[in-house]
Amino acid sequence: MSQREWIEKDFYKELGIASSASTEEIKKAYRKLARDLHPDANPGDPKAEERFKAVSEAHTVLSDPAKRAEYDETRRLFSGGGYGRGGGFTPGAGGGFSQSFDLGDIFGQAGGGGADGGLGDLFGGLFNRGGGATRTGSRPRRGADVEAETTLGFREAAKGVTVPLYLTSPSPCTTCHGSGAKPGTSPRVCPICNGSGVVSRNQGAFGFSEPCDECRGTGSIIDDPCVDCHGSGTQNRTRTINVRIPPGIADGQRIRLAGQGEAGLRGAPSGDLFVTVHVSQDKVFGRTGDDLTLALPVSYSELVLGTTVSVPTLEGRVGVKVPPGTADGRILRVRGRGVPKRGGGAGDLLVTVKVAVPPKLDDDAVAALRALQEAEKSSGFDPRAGWAGA
């Protein structure tokens, strides 16, 4: 996305939030709008589809702290009238700039890297003393990264799964294959800037570099633009990406898919897709690192006399031996039956035994328990011996 598009679009307004909104408020507003405007919920409604694309575009920028800061700074600078339509910079009334002042030093890293295209690309060569040479050659503007989210079931996340993601973002034009030129033609090098994308002019002691008006800073001219993308090389479209979620992924982890983000302008490299995975809770299993946990209900007699109980795992059921005299709350370990590890193997299954007390007993059961109680007393067993100073 170009800086001019950033100036003309109000992403905060698209999401219906204030410019001071927190990250959580941005996420909440986007989720509600995306749910209401998704093409699956509005079949055949072109207005809803356009709004869905605009909302997705706004979320892509505002959900990324670096992009949001760059967007806010760009709009602040341009709304103040500092950069006019002709591309020249007008110093403020408070005083001029010294010859050692270089906006490239301030904004050179704002775009997160040379090829990303940001404030550094816009201002990097603005103040070159003495009208010296500008950067040689224009750099392709890499597409922006895209953020997405998906929610998995607990067992899906533990075992791994492939999920489809539906994304609306700039993608390479299928007609011109990203070149921006009509099929059968090619862009030509701009004769004004010789492909650099910028031109220089002198004003007093300063040498100013500004985007070339002839090619609009791209370094090339398209005489016959593609009729579908109008020369940009990209189209906003909804696409389906099958994402392989590796086994053992944890809640909140992100997966990077290189080159699956927004398409770059005129064939430049695409950005990356970052998928944040949310994992829902399970009714049986819990998780501690690579270990699975579960609570096993047992009777008092099973703890005293011992037993073998069938328990579930991610790959079926296994028998767990409860030794005689096992205390309530003891953890029994089943090795290798936990969450798969990245380097191979798996964690363990940790089984915590919990006494299940019957809510109601018949007369025979009550009589048997009273007999057991008397036998325990006769044998000298005291469950509270040494407890609390007793």
TrEMBL record:
Q: Which cofactor does it need?
A: Zn(2+)
Binding sites annotated in the UniProt record for Zn(2+) 2:
190, 193, 212, 215
Query: Which UniProt keyword terms apply here?
Result: Chaperone, Cytoplasm, DNA replication, Metal-binding, Repeat, Stress response, Zinc, Zinc-finger
Which InterPro entries does its entry note?
Answer: DnaJ, DnaJ_C, DnaJ_domain, HSP40/DnaJ_pept-bd, HSP_DnaJ_Cys-rich_dom, HSP_DnaJ_Cys-rich_dom_sf, J_dom_sf
Stretches forming CXXCXGXG motif repeats: 173-180, 190-197, 212-219, 226-233
Q: Name one GO molecular function term.
A: ATP binding
Q: Where are the zinc fingers (CR-type)?
A: 160-238
Q: Name one Pfam family in it.
A: DnaJ_C
Taxonomically, the superkingdom here is Bacteria
Task: Supply the CDD domains for this chain.
Answer: DnaJ, DnaJ_C, DnaJ_zf
Q: Which residues form the J domain?
A: 10-75
Every copy of the CR-type domain together lies at: 160-238
Q: What is its main location?
A: cytoplasm
What Gene3D superfamilies is this protein classified in? Answer: DnaJ domain (1.10.287.110), Heat shock protein DnaJ, cysteine-rich domain (2.10.230.10), Urease metallochaperone UreE, N-terminal domain (2.60.260.20)
The protein's matches in PROSITE patterns, at most eight in alphabetical order, are given as: DNAJ_2, ZF_CR
Q: Which Gene Ontology cellular-component terms appear in the entry?
A: cytoplasm
User: Which GO BP terms apply?
Assistant: DNA replication; protein refolding; response to heat
Q: Cofactor stoichiometry and binding?
A: Binds 2 Zn(2+) ions per monomer.
- What is this protein's function? Participates actively in the response to hyperosmotic and heat shock by preventing the aggregation of stress-denatured proteins and by disaggregating proteins, also in an autonomous, DnaK-independent fashion. Unfolded proteins bind initially to DnaJ; upon interaction with the DnaJ-bound protein, DnaK hydrolyzes its bound ATP, resulting in the formation of a stable complex. GrpE releases ADP from DnaK; ATP binding to DnaK triggers the release of the substrate protein, thus completing the reaction cycle.
Q: How does it assemble?
A: Homodimer.
Give the domain section of the comments.
The J domain is necessary and sufficient to stimulate DnaK ATPase activity. Zinc center 1 plays an important role in the autonomous, DnaK-independent chaperone activity of DnaJ. Zinc center 2 is essential for interaction with DnaK and for DnaJ activity.
Family according to the record? Belongs to the DnaJ family.
Protein name, as recorded: Chaperone protein DnaJ
Gene source species: Nocardia jinanensis
